[in-house]
Amino acid sequence: MKKIFNMSERIREKLNILADAAKYDVSCSSSGSKRKNENGGIGDASNGICHTYTEDGRCVSLLKILLTNHCIYDCAFCVSRKSNDVKRAAFTVDEVVELTMSFYRRNYIEGLFLSSGIFKNADFTMERLVRIVKRLRLEERFNGYIHLKTIPGASPELLTEAGLYADRMSINLEMPTEAGLKLLAPDKSHDDVKKPLGFIQDTITRFKDEKKTGLIKSMPKFVPAGQSTQMVIGATPETDMEIMYSADQYYKDYSLKRVYYSGYIPISHDTRMPVIGSQPPLLRENRLYQTDWLMRFYGFGVQELLNPKNPHLDVDIDPKLSWALRNLHQFPIDINTADYKMILRVPGIGVGSANKIVQARKFGRLYSYQLQKIGIAYNRAKYFIRCADSPYSLTEPDAPQLKGMILAESNSKYLKTAQNQLSLF
Amino acid sequence: MIAYIFDGSFEGLLTAVFDSYERKDKAVDVVWDKYYQPTMLDEPHTVVSDAAKAKRVWTALGKKMDKRWEIMFYKAYLSEDPQTFKDLCNFARYIFDNPPGAEANFGNPYVMAVSKMDKSVNREKHRMKAFIRFQKTADGMYYCPVEPDFNVLPLISKFFKDRYADQQWIIYDIKRKYGLYYNLKTVEEITCEFVANIDTTKVVLPVSLQDEKEELASMLWKDYFNSTNIPARKNMKLHIQHVPRRYWKYLNEKEGKN
């Protein structure tokens, strides 16, 4: 006899399939929106809360699911590609709404991250996604965070409507360069991504400008947490320079809030990509994120960190230390007089400590014990700074010596990890 | 150095600062009475908590430093940490003895100590916002027992009130034997009698007290937690760094992992 699923078993199976298929989208942010619970409903968007972490150490902030993993496309890097032999499922609108509310009311999540395989066509898919967010906002009076995927090729009308209910929208570049994308997904192109990114960014700007005029009293929110994108790292042979230059361009052209870098996890026997079972390039992913941070919070230009002379990020040291070692002529700096911007560039000093240093030095020259209390990584920073009690030294070590000294003192977990990056040739 | 013994209350701490000026004691060692161990040489001063004195100190402090530091001062106090009480007293005296703006001197050990403790309390506050797992009861209430490292319930009350405005909820601190109850209008502080029908030492409510959909909701969350994990990226060290073991027993997705 055919096994009859009862309701709860059926929903459990769907959730397992559609959460599993959605997990390769690494965006987890739930911050940047200021949506408040002003309609006596439920929820608000806060500064971002990670409610738990999976055993792989990634944060769980949103209920991240696909509406369906049925898809008309056959992108080689995607687990939901048409030709892949996996179980397929689709949620109903009611099911997504009920799951979201049930999780949110128990404080499991900050909100919903909804994506989908493309079934039938772009508009048909986008329309379903919009129907869900509308239900949540208008009927459930849900003010929690909603991250909605932009379906490439969906009509401007649908995108505009989606933007009125979502906090963030995103659309993935998939591969860092057009050539890489063409290799694995011949049906797709970066132009399909640029068009909607540009359209939504323009609409965000238009809403902001109209709000500034003050003519319309309560201007509705439009994608208040902005847009983001993701590129898969290590499936195609781009250099770190190509990846970060591409990211930099998208940050500038579309005012993106985030670019995510997702180390490729082999899910296919396709010979164009790393084989199943090979380790995902986690260290490389980490170095790319460090570079991204240096660009966004530390005032570094991408060309300073990566350039034709240095197209790859160092494996054994982080990009900030790597930059400092290439630019030793700019060091040591005097903590008690140097510009804030320069203090920020010292390996071992973060944004918080740099702020504390410039405040504290107004009260008197700072000594090394104070810098240590303030919380800088003194053992690393000491080679690049002078403070009130620094001993005077006649000979300065050169870059290779310095690197050796710093590495000898550090116990980086990465030194023990086997490296694997795709070779270029 | 003279020991000032106080009762551990915020009022008491501020009174100690007041007394130190009134008695013209230059160096003061604030000791929480429950940790006080008399010695032969000691001649301690016993601080009698006094609302009027405390208010004078608090108002004067508020006038002398940045508004944000008032909150930081209070947060550091909620750590209930004996060393922090000493630091707070010394910090207050440092602020009074110097021109306005002295709280920005991160080279000063008391400023740094208060700033550090504020950060720790903030982290715990943030963890409670993240790790609260409500269980829906048969009478439609959302309930969660907690055991925070610091006394952070006063710091999360408004957050939960604003967010869950249309549902009644209880957050109960097992360690400190009090809780918060939101009645759809205001948040009230409750004692253990309020939750007398619940065995607060048990994290999961008995089925008889649960809403009929509670079990399924919790199971779906556990399913989701497992499905969203990527085994090829397994990194337990990072996992434990973000979700320290001492919180696991309150997290339904970690049930059975203890």
Structural class of chain A: alpha/beta
> Total domains of chain A, how many?
2
Could you tell me the CATH topology label of the largest domain in chain A.
Answer: TIM Barrel
Average pLDDT number of chain A: 92
How far is the first residue's CA from the last residue's CA of chain B?
A: 47 Å
Helix content of chain A: 25-40%
Order of helix and strand elements from N to C terminus of chain B: EHEEHHHHEEHEEEHH
Compute the CA-based radius of gyration of chain B: 22 Å
Strand order of the largest sheet of chain A: 3-4-5-6-7-8
Rg of chain A: 24 Å
Uncertain runs of chain A are: 416-425
Quote the average pLDDT of chain B. Answer: 95
CATH homologous superfamily classification of the largest domain in chain A: Aldolase class I
Shape of chain A: globular
Number of helices of chain A: 15
| General shape of chain B | elongated
Query: Helicity level of chain B, as a percent range?
Result: 40-55%
Number of DSSP E strands of chain A: 10
- Low-confidence regions of chain B: none
Report on the structure:
The complex is a heterodimer of chains A (425) and B (258). With 425 residues, chain A is an alpha/beta fold. Helix content of chain A is 39%, strand content 9%. Chain A has two domains: 7-305, TIM Barrel; 319-416, no CATH class. Chain A has helices at 7-20, 93-105, 122-139, 156-165, 178-184, 190-213, 240-254, 282-297, 302-305, 319-326, 340-343, 351-360, 368-374, 378-381, 399-409; strands at residues 52-53, 59-60, 62-66, 111-115, 145-149, 168-170, 227-233, 258-263, 333-334, 385-386. In chain A, α7 packs across α8 (282-297). The longest helix of chain A has 24 residues, at 190-213. The radius of gyration of chain A is 24 Å and the shape is globular. Chain B has two domains: 2-124, no CATH class; 132-254, no CATH class. In chain B, 42% of the residues lie in helices and 13% in strands. Chain B has eight helices and eight strands. Chain B has helices at 10-22, 51-64, 67-77, 82-97, 109-131, 153-163, 214-227, 236-242, and strands at residues 2-6, 28-32, 45-46, 135-136, 142-146, 169-173, 178-182, 187-191. In chain B, β7 (178-182) and β8 form a beta hairpin. In chain B, α1 crosses α2 (51-64) and α1 (10-22) packs across α4. The chains are: A alpha/beta (425), B alpha/beta (258).
